[in-house]
Amino acid sequence: MDYSSNHFQHIINTSSNAYYPLQLNTLTSLPFYIVSIGIQEDEGKITHPGLIYQEEDAQMVRPSAFSNYHILYSSKGSGMATIDGISISVPEGSFIFHTPGTPRCYEPIEKPWCTKWIAFHGYAVGKLLPFKSGVYSIPTPELFDSHFSAFFDGPKNHSWIYDSSTYLYRLLLDLSSTAFLPGPTDKTMKQMEVIQNYLAENFHQEISLEDLARLAGVSETHLCRLFQDVLHVRPFEYITHLRIQRAKELLQKYPTLRAGDIAHMVGYKSPSYFTMLFKQAEGITPLEFRNMHL
Protein backbone atom coordinates (compact mmCIF):
# COMPACT_ATOMS: atom_id res chain seq x y z
CA MET A 1 0.00 0.00 0.00
CA ASP A 2 1.50 3.30 -1.07
CA TYR A 3 0.82 6.66 0.60
CA SER A 4 1.37 9.36 -1.96
CA SER A 5 2.15 12.99 -1.36
CA ASN A 6 -0.63 15.57 -1.16
CA HIS A 7 -2.41 13.50 1.50
CA PHE A 8 -3.85 10.80 -0.78
CA GLN A 9 -3.83 7.06 -0.26
CA HIS A 10 -3.65 5.31 -3.62
CA ILE A 11 -4.52 1.60 -3.94
CA ILE A 12 -4.03 -0.30 -7.21
CA ASN A 13 -4.21 -4.05 -7.87
CA THR A 14 -4.92 -6.26 -10.85
CA SER A 15 -8.68 -5.75 -10.92
CA SER A 16 -9.44 -2.52 -9.10
CA ASN A 17 -8.00 0.86 -8.33
CA ALA A 18 -9.24 3.56 -6.03
CA TYR A 19 -8.46 6.85 -4.36
CA TYR A 20 -9.10 7.61 -0.69
CA PRO A 21 -8.54 11.23 0.32
CA LEU A 22 -7.75 11.71 3.99
CA GLN A 23 -10.82 12.81 5.91
CA LEU A 24 -9.33 16.03 7.27
CA ASN A 25 -11.35 19.01 8.49
CA THR A 26 -10.52 20.80 5.25
CA LEU A 27 -12.38 18.10 3.38
CA THR A 28 -15.28 17.27 5.69
CA SER A 29 -16.25 20.92 6.14
CA LEU A 30 -17.20 21.17 2.46
CA PRO A 31 -20.86 20.95 1.36
CA PHE A 32 -19.91 18.07 -0.99
CA TYR A 33 -16.86 15.85 -0.66
CA ILE A 34 -15.64 12.47 -1.84
CA VAL A 35 -14.85 9.73 0.68
CA SER A 36 -13.63 7.21 -1.91
CA ILE A 37 -13.77 6.71 -5.66
CA GLY A 38 -12.77 3.76 -7.78
CA ILE A 39 -13.19 1.32 -10.63
CA GLN A 40 -13.97 -2.39 -10.25
CA GLU A 41 -13.10 -4.30 -13.41
CA ASP A 42 -14.95 -7.47 -12.40
CA GLU A 43 -17.51 -6.87 -9.68
CA GLY A 44 -17.94 -9.92 -7.51
CA LYS A 45 -14.30 -11.04 -7.48
CA ILE A 46 -12.86 -8.18 -5.45
CA THR A 47 -15.04 -6.28 -3.06
CA HIS A 48 -15.45 -2.58 -2.57
CA PRO A 49 -13.98 -1.16 0.63
CA GLY A 50 -15.94 -2.39 3.64
CA LEU A 51 -17.95 -4.98 1.73
CA ILE A 52 -17.89 -8.66 2.69
CA TYR A 53 -17.32 -11.05 -0.21
CA GLN A 54 -19.04 -14.44 -0.02
CA GLU A 55 -17.16 -16.79 -2.35
CA GLU A 56 -19.80 -19.54 -2.37
CA ASP A 57 -22.45 -17.42 -4.05
CA ALA A 58 -20.38 -14.56 -5.46
CA GLN A 59 -22.24 -11.91 -3.52
CA MET A 60 -21.09 -8.80 -1.72
CA VAL A 61 -22.99 -8.19 1.48
CA ARG A 62 -22.97 -5.05 3.58
CA PRO A 63 -24.96 -5.98 6.71
CA SER A 64 -24.12 -2.87 8.73
CA ALA A 65 -24.15 -0.41 5.78
CA PHE A 66 -22.00 2.60 4.95
CA SER A 67 -22.29 5.87 6.81
CA ASN A 68 -21.90 7.76 3.51
CA TYR A 69 -23.85 8.23 0.31
CA HIS A 70 -22.82 5.82 -2.39
CA ILE A 71 -23.23 5.58 -6.18
CA LEU A 72 -22.28 2.34 -7.95
CA TYR A 73 -22.47 2.76 -11.73
CA SER A 74 -22.77 -0.31 -14.00
CA SER A 75 -20.43 0.51 -16.89
CA LYS A 76 -20.35 -2.98 -18.45
CA GLY A 77 -22.36 -6.12 -17.84
CA SER A 78 -25.16 -6.26 -15.29
CA GLY A 79 -25.88 -7.24 -11.73
CA MET A 80 -28.51 -7.60 -9.07
CA ALA A 81 -28.81 -5.39 -6.01
CA THR A 82 -30.73 -6.22 -2.86
CA ILE A 83 -31.65 -3.02 -1.05
CA ASP A 84 -33.67 -3.15 2.16
CA GLY A 85 -34.64 -6.72 1.29
CA ILE A 86 -35.83 -5.89 -2.24
CA SER A 87 -33.94 -7.32 -5.24
CA ILE A 88 -33.53 -4.97 -8.22
CA SER A 89 -31.68 -5.60 -11.49
CA VAL A 90 -28.82 -3.25 -12.36
CA PRO A 91 -28.48 -3.19 -16.16
CA GLU A 92 -25.57 -1.61 -18.00
CA GLY A 93 -25.84 2.18 -17.96
CA SER A 94 -27.77 2.36 -14.69
CA PHE A 95 -26.55 2.96 -11.15
CA ILE A 96 -27.29 2.00 -7.57
CA PHE A 97 -27.79 4.92 -5.19
CA HIS A 98 -27.51 4.37 -1.44
CA THR A 99 -28.28 6.79 1.34
CA PRO A 100 -26.28 6.42 4.57
CA GLY A 101 -27.23 3.43 6.69
CA THR A 102 -28.91 1.35 3.98
CA PRO A 103 -28.06 -2.40 4.18
CA ARG A 104 -27.48 -3.97 0.77
CA CYS A 105 -25.69 -6.65 -1.23
CA TYR A 106 -24.72 -7.06 -4.88
CA GLU A 107 -24.14 -9.99 -7.19
CA PRO A 108 -23.08 -10.15 -10.84
CA ILE A 109 -25.57 -11.40 -13.44
CA GLU A 110 -23.82 -10.73 -16.75
CA LYS A 111 -20.05 -11.06 -16.41
CA PRO A 112 -17.73 -9.35 -16.39
CA TRP A 113 -19.66 -6.81 -14.36
CA CYS A 114 -17.55 -3.65 -14.46
CA THR A 115 -18.52 -0.85 -12.12
CA LYS A 116 -17.42 2.62 -11.06
CA TRP A 117 -18.20 3.88 -7.59
CA ILE A 118 -18.19 7.13 -5.66
CA ALA A 119 -18.74 7.29 -1.90
CA PHE A 120 -19.44 10.84 -0.78
CA HIS A 121 -20.91 13.06 1.90
CA GLY A 122 -21.33 16.70 2.89
CA TYR A 123 -23.83 18.83 4.76
CA ALA A 124 -25.61 19.88 1.53
CA VAL A 125 -25.99 16.45 -0.08
CA GLY A 126 -29.27 15.60 1.66
CA LYS A 127 -30.83 18.85 0.45
CA LEU A 128 -29.82 18.24 -3.16
CA LEU A 129 -30.63 14.52 -3.19
CA PRO A 130 -33.78 13.88 -1.10
CA PHE A 131 -34.18 10.53 -2.84
CA LYS A 132 -34.49 6.95 -1.63
CA SER A 133 -31.93 4.22 -2.10
CA GLY A 134 -32.57 2.32 -5.31
CA VAL A 135 -31.52 1.67 -8.90
CA TYR A 136 -31.79 4.56 -11.36
CA SER A 137 -31.29 4.90 -15.11
CA ILE A 138 -29.14 7.55 -16.76
CA PRO A 139 -30.64 8.96 -20.01
CA THR A 140 -27.16 9.38 -21.52
CA PRO A 141 -24.44 7.07 -20.11
CA GLU A 142 -21.79 9.52 -21.30
CA LEU A 143 -23.05 11.89 -18.59
CA PHE A 144 -21.69 9.78 -15.76
CA ASP A 145 -18.49 8.79 -17.58
CA SER A 146 -17.52 12.39 -18.30
CA HIS A 147 -18.06 13.45 -14.69
CA PHE A 148 -16.26 10.38 -13.36
CA SER A 149 -13.23 11.05 -15.55
CA ALA A 150 -12.99 14.57 -14.13
CA PHE A 151 -12.65 13.05 -10.64
CA PHE A 152 -10.59 10.02 -11.39
CA ASP A 153 -8.25 10.90 -14.25
CA GLY A 154 -7.21 14.37 -13.11
CA PRO A 155 -4.02 15.05 -11.19
CA LYS A 156 -4.21 14.32 -7.46
CA ASN A 157 -2.50 17.52 -6.40
CA HIS A 158 -3.23 19.99 -3.59
CA SER A 159 -6.30 21.41 -5.38
CA TRP A 160 -8.00 18.03 -5.90
CA ILE A 161 -10.09 18.33 -2.72
CA TYR A 162 -11.71 21.55 -3.92
CA ASP A 163 -11.87 20.59 -7.60
CA SER A 164 -13.51 17.26 -6.76
CA SER A 165 -16.08 19.02 -4.57
CA THR A 166 -17.06 21.17 -7.55
CA TYR A 167 -17.18 18.18 -9.90
CA LEU A 168 -19.26 16.22 -7.40
CA TYR A 169 -21.78 19.06 -7.13
CA ARG A 170 -22.08 19.18 -10.93
CA LEU A 171 -22.60 15.43 -11.14
CA LEU A 172 -25.24 15.37 -8.41
CA LEU A 173 -26.99 18.38 -9.93
CA ASP A 174 -27.16 16.64 -13.31
CA LEU A 175 -28.38 13.40 -11.77
CA SER A 176 -31.01 15.17 -9.68
CA SER A 177 -32.51 16.73 -12.82
CA THR A 178 -32.29 13.65 -15.06
CA ALA A 179 -31.75 10.22 -13.56
CA PHE A 180 -33.62 10.82 -10.29
CA LEU A 181 -36.71 12.21 -12.02
CA PRO A 182 -39.07 10.03 -14.07
CA GLY A 183 -38.73 10.99 -17.70
CA PRO A 184 -41.76 11.84 -19.83
CA THR A 185 -43.16 9.07 -22.03
CA ASP A 186 -43.20 9.21 -25.82
CA LYS A 187 -46.95 9.86 -25.70
CA THR A 188 -46.41 12.77 -23.32
CA MET A 189 -43.72 14.27 -25.54
CA LYS A 190 -45.96 14.03 -28.62
CA GLN A 191 -48.82 15.72 -26.76
CA MET A 192 -46.51 18.52 -25.63
CA GLU A 193 -45.07 18.92 -29.12
CA VAL A 194 -48.57 19.53 -30.50
CA ILE A 195 -49.28 22.10 -27.77
CA GLN A 196 -45.94 23.90 -28.15
CA ASN A 197 -46.30 24.14 -31.94
CA TYR A 198 -49.80 25.57 -31.50
CA LEU A 199 -48.66 28.11 -28.92
CA ALA A 200 -45.70 29.19 -31.05
CA GLU A 201 -48.19 30.31 -33.70
CA ASN A 202 -51.06 31.52 -31.49
CA PHE A 203 -49.54 32.84 -28.24
CA HIS A 204 -50.87 36.34 -29.02
CA GLN A 205 -54.46 35.07 -29.10
CA GLU A 206 -56.76 34.55 -26.13
CA ILE A 207 -56.07 30.98 -25.04
CA SER A 208 -57.84 28.99 -22.34
CA LEU A 209 -56.87 25.84 -20.52
CA GLU A 210 -59.93 24.23 -22.06
CA ASP A 211 -58.63 25.02 -25.56
CA LEU A 212 -55.23 23.47 -24.86
CA ALA A 213 -56.67 20.44 -23.09
CA ARG A 214 -58.99 19.76 -26.02
CA LEU A 215 -56.06 20.10 -28.42
CA ALA A 216 -54.02 17.54 -26.46
CA GLY A 217 -56.98 15.26 -25.85
CA VAL A 218 -56.65 15.36 -22.06
CA SER A 219 -58.40 16.93 -19.09
CA GLU A 220 -57.39 20.38 -17.85
CA THR A 221 -55.89 18.84 -14.72
CA HIS A 222 -53.84 16.41 -16.79
CA LEU A 223 -52.74 19.25 -19.06
CA CYS A 224 -51.27 21.12 -16.09
CA ARG A 225 -49.47 17.94 -15.06
CA LEU A 226 -48.01 17.60 -18.58
CA PHE A 227 -46.54 21.09 -18.40
CA GLN A 228 -45.04 20.42 -14.98
CA ASP A 229 -43.58 17.05 -15.99
CA VAL A 230 -42.03 18.23 -19.25
CA LEU A 231 -41.39 21.98 -18.91
CA HIS A 232 -41.58 22.42 -15.11
CA VAL A 233 -43.89 25.43 -15.45
CA ARG A 234 -47.63 26.03 -15.44
CA PRO A 235 -49.33 26.53 -18.84
CA PHE A 236 -49.87 30.28 -18.49
CA GLU A 237 -46.33 30.77 -17.22
CA TYR A 238 -45.13 29.19 -20.45
CA ILE A 239 -47.39 31.48 -22.50
CA THR A 240 -46.04 34.49 -20.63
CA HIS A 241 -42.47 33.38 -21.42
CA LEU A 242 -43.38 33.14 -25.11
CA ARG A 243 -44.97 36.59 -25.12
CA ILE A 244 -42.07 38.26 -23.31
CA GLN A 245 -39.59 36.59 -25.65
CA ARG A 246 -41.49 37.88 -28.69
CA ALA A 247 -41.79 41.34 -27.13
CA LYS A 248 -38.01 41.53 -26.70
CA GLU A 249 -37.57 40.71 -30.38
CA LEU A 250 -40.08 43.40 -31.41
CA LEU A 251 -38.55 46.04 -29.12
CA GLN A 252 -35.23 45.64 -30.89
CA LYS A 253 -36.62 45.21 -34.39
CA TYR A 254 -38.93 48.25 -34.28
CA PRO A 255 -37.22 51.00 -32.23
CA THR A 256 -39.99 53.56 -32.92
CA LEU A 257 -42.90 51.29 -32.03
CA ARG A 258 -44.59 52.18 -28.75
CA ALA A 259 -44.51 49.70 -25.87
CA GLY A 260 -48.31 49.77 -25.81
CA ASP A 261 -48.47 48.66 -29.44
CA ILE A 262 -46.05 45.83 -28.74
CA ALA A 263 -48.16 44.80 -25.77
CA HIS A 264 -51.17 44.37 -28.09
CA MET A 265 -49.06 42.50 -30.67
CA VAL A 266 -48.01 39.85 -28.14
CA GLY A 267 -51.46 39.40 -26.63
CA TYR A 268 -51.90 41.94 -23.80
CA LYS A 269 -54.77 44.45 -23.86
CA SER A 270 -53.34 46.45 -20.97
CA PRO A 271 -49.93 48.12 -21.59
CA SER A 272 -49.44 48.61 -17.86
CA TYR A 273 -50.01 44.92 -17.17
CA PHE A 274 -47.57 44.05 -19.96
CA THR A 275 -44.97 46.41 -18.45
CA MET A 276 -45.42 44.84 -15.03
CA LEU A 277 -44.95 41.29 -16.38
CA PHE A 278 -41.97 42.36 -18.47
CA LYS A 279 -40.25 43.95 -15.48
CA GLN A 280 -40.92 40.86 -13.36
CA ALA A 281 -39.28 38.70 -16.03
CA GLU A 282 -36.37 40.94 -17.03
CA GLY A 283 -35.84 43.26 -14.07
CA ILE A 284 -36.27 46.35 -16.27
CA THR A 285 -39.11 48.00 -18.20
CA PRO A 286 -39.65 47.39 -21.93
CA LEU A 287 -38.29 50.84 -22.80
CA GLU A 288 -35.23 50.36 -20.62
CA PHE A 289 -34.64 47.05 -22.39
CA ARG A 290 -34.89 48.74 -25.77
CA ASN A 291 -32.48 51.53 -24.77
CA MET A 292 -29.94 48.93 -23.65
CA HIS A 293 -30.00 47.32 -27.11
CA LEU A 294 -30.03 50.34 -29.41
List keywords for this structure.
single chain; 294 residues; alpha+beta; 11-stranded antiparallel sheet; 40% helix; disordered N terminus
Number of strands: 11
The gross shape turns out to be elongated
Give the terminus-to-terminus CA distance. 66 Å
Please report the number of helical segments: 11
Instruction: Report the structural category.
Output: alpha+beta
**Oligomeric assembly:** single chain
Nearest-angstrom radius of gyration?
Answer: 26 Å
Average pLDDT: 81
H/E element sequence:
EEEHEEEEEEEHEHHHHHHHHH
Give the low-pLDDT segments: 1-16, 45-64
| Strand proportion | 25-35%
Which percent bin holds the helix content? 40-55%
Question: Biggest sheet, in brief?
Answer: 11 strands, antiparallel
Notes on the structure:
- With 294 residues, the protein is of the alpha+beta class.
- The chain contains eleven helices and eleven strands.
- It has helices spanning 25-28, 125-128, 141-152, 160-177, 186-202, 209-216, 220-230, 235-253, 259-265, 271-282, 286-292; strands spanning 2-4, 8-12, 16-21, 33-40, 52-54, 59-62, 69-83, 86-90, 94-98, 104-121, 134-137.
- Strands 1, 2, 3, 4, 5, 6, 7, 8, 9, 10 and 11 form an eleven-stranded antiparallel β-sheet that branches.
- A hairpin with a 3-residue loop joins strand 1 (2-4) and strand 2.
- It is elongated, with a radius of gyration of 26 Å.
